[in-house]
Each structure stands twice: as C-alpha cells, then as structure tokens.
Amino acid sequence: MKDFDYIRAVSLEDARQRAMRSGAMLFAGGTTLLDLVKCGVAEPELVVDISHIAGLSQISADGSGVTIGALARMEDVAGSPGIKADYAAIAQSLSLAASPQLRNMATIGGNLLQRTRCPYFRDPGTFEACNKRNPGSGCSAIGGVTRNHAVLGTSSACIASYPGDLAVALVAFDATISLGERTVSAEDLFLLPGDTPERETILERGEMVMAVFIPSLPVAKNSIYLKIRDRQSYEFAAASAAVGLELETDRRTIKDIRVALGGVATKPWRARSVEEALIGKTIDVATVEKASRLAVEGAVSSGGNQYKIELAPRVVTRAILTTGGLL
Ligand SMILES: Cc1cc2nc3c(=O)[nH]c(=O)nc-3n(C[C@H](O)[C@H](O)[C@H](O)COP(=O)(O)OP(=O)(O)OC[C@H]3O[C@@H](n4cnc5c(N)ncnc54)[C@H](O)[C@@H]3O)c2cc1C
Ligand code: SF4
C-alpha cells in the first residue's frame, strides 16, 4: 500500500476544488475505497474526506418523488418509513446489501460508485493482465474462473459484472443523479466496457454525486428487489431483479411494469424488452415466463457463468409474479 495525504473537506466547494487535483480520490464511508487501496488497485496521492460536509445526507420527499443526499447512509435510507412504503425495491436493494456494520458506514454515493468484485481486478500482485486496471494489458478473467462474471454488456476487453444492488433499482424506476452542474439518468451514469473498461461512469475529474432523485410512481410503490446469491447474507448477487408493477383496475391487465437486472451485466441493466412484451397483457405464469426469457437476449457465456443465463429469467419471473400477487 502506498502512502497518501488525507484531508477533511470543510465544504462542498473545498471538496470539489481538492478533488480536481490529479491523484485525488473522495472518501465518503470509506468501506470500499480503503479495500481498494489496501489491495493495490487504488493508489491515491490525496484522499479527500467528504463525510463531514453538511447538507448532503437528507432524505426529502414531495408529491413528485424523493431526493436522497449522496452522503445518506445506506442503513438510514433502507430503514426510512417513507422509502419502505413508497419505494419498496429501493429499500430492499439496500437492506439486502453488505452487512449492518457496512451499511451504517457506507453512503449512497459511494454505493453507486463501488467497483467490480472481479477477483483478477482485485489482485494486481498476482494478475498483471486487467484492462480495467491497466488498459491494454489484457483480461485475466477470459479463459479463467468466471462464475461471478457478466453475461450481458460484455466486450472482448472486459467481462466484469457491476456488483451493486441500489443502482439496479434506481435504473428500473428512472431515477436521476445530480452531479451538481448537471443531472443524468441513473442508466446513463454507467458506461459499458467496450474498448475502455477503465472508464466506468461518465463522471469527470472533480465531479461528485450530490443526490439521487426517484420519481413517485405506482410501479415504484408496488415493487420488489429479489436477490439470489450463494448465501443468504453478506454476499453479492449472482442474479437479481428490481421489478415494479401496476395493474389496471381489472387487477389482471398489466398497465405499467419496470424490470432491471443485477449481478449479470457489466452495468445495471434495464430489461426493456421484457417490459414491452408485458404491457397490456394479462398477468399469468406462462405469459410472464415467456417474456422473462427476453431479459437475457444477447447474453454471452464465458464458461462458469453460463448458469446466469438460466437463472436471471427465473428471478425476473418470480419477482413479477410476486408483485402481481400470484406467488
Ligand atoms: C464485504 C462487503 C460486502 C458487500 N456487499 C455488498 C452487496 O451485497 N451489495 C452492494 O450493493 N454493495 C456491497 N458492498 C459494497 C458496499 O455497499 C460499498 O462498500 C459501499 O456502499 C461504499 O460506500 P462508501 O460510502 O463506503 O464509499 P467509499 O468507499 O467512501 O467510496 C467508494 C468510491 O466512490 C467514490 N465516492 C464516494 N462518494 C462519492 C460521491 N459523493 N461522489 C463521487 N464519488 C464518490 C470514492 O472516491 C470511491 O471511489 C459490500 C462491501 C463489502 C466490503
Ligand atoms: S474481467 Fe475486466 S476487471 Fe476482470 S480481469 Fe478482465 S479486464 Fe480486468
């Protein structure tokens, strides 16, 4: 681990100016940044602690939706009665993530910007080849152990999956992210690896996530985050689905539906083809199963992750049937 300077930012402006410096990295809860420093993936020259900046940890709701500050703690958001009642999948995506200790430290902004759990990426001492860490060096995962890697959105340069849960739910419900000077959709915040897997988001140097806005929608209220993983706690998703459903007054016809996938793609993955196949249809098991298979259209297996192509549509089916009251 390389030594670095540490400074506690006293204001937003102070943080932004310091973050502009080459080699600077922001520290919010520090729960993933320090791991990356210890394993040699991150080598900041300056760590700018933003955790004490006032005014960035509020949760405020009005008729149009809810705004969550970037420094709000995961546990506080997961436990907020308003979030649980009106944005169920958002609350569940947070409470099913990490552990209580981590959730009490970790922030919303830091959660969105966590990096892949690809074991080759996180072990620079053993695996030199990693295009995400070291552009142009190759990919140690391709041809290696790929059980946790992505099947959607991959490229010949990188097949690492995006590990977070919250971002999946945000993408499903058309959330937007305030970066201060500009606001982007949660979906557009994240980039596909393509030929430049080292660039994971659209953030420019010095830019900060300030807040997340989730519109108030019937689909966000009647929603679920279903996460399948190797063990029932303290584990990342093998496959997950954020689903929201609104039925017509007949309680059978699908008026609106949102579907996004986690654990299986290189970025939080909106499954629009599933949504389009179901809007206007009567909800029943056969129809939902057929549409859910579209979730993995274009999926490519790298060997050990083949099971995700089977698992993801089943997770989507179960989530939709649950929100529809059929399970
Ligand atoms: C053992 C373990 C299990 C986990 N399991 C899960 C899981 O199941 N699901 C899940 O979703 N997550 C999981 N996590 C990840 C965890 O949720 C993240 O570590 C946490 O959310 C990061 O938040 P933080 O505030 O501590 O971020 P930090 O570590 O402070 O920062 C993370 C990154 O974001 C940047 N950053 C932080 N805040 C901002 C901001 N406002 N603007 C711009 N950049 C910023 C930092 O520079 C850094 O690069 C797990 C982590 C661990 C260690
Ligand atoms: S999958 Fe991506 S992160 Fe993992 S070794 Fe290959 S290039 Fe690196």
Q: Provide the gyration radius in Å.
A: 20 Å
Q: CATH homologous superfamily of the largest domain, by name?
A: CO dehydrogenase flavoprotein, C-terminal domain
Whole-number average pLDDT?
A: 97
Q: What is the third-level CATH name, the topology of the largest domain?
A: Enolase-like, domain 1
Beta-strand share of residues: 15-25%
- The number of distinct β-strands equals 12
Largest sheet data: 5 strands, antiparallel
The helix content is 25-40%
Overall shape: it is: globular
CATH class of the largest domain: Alpha Beta
Helices and strands: which structural class?
alpha+beta
Distance between the termini: 50 Å
Low-confidence runs of at least 5 consecutive residues:
none
The molecules bound to the chains, other than polymers, are:
flavin-adenine dinucleotide, iron/sulfur cluster
What string gives the helices and strands in order? EHEHEEEHHHHHHEEHEHEEEEHHH
CATH architecture of the largest domain: 2-Layer Sandwich
Strand arrangement, major sheet: 4-5-8-6-7
Number of discrete domains: 2
Question: What count of helical segments does DSSP give?
Answer: 13
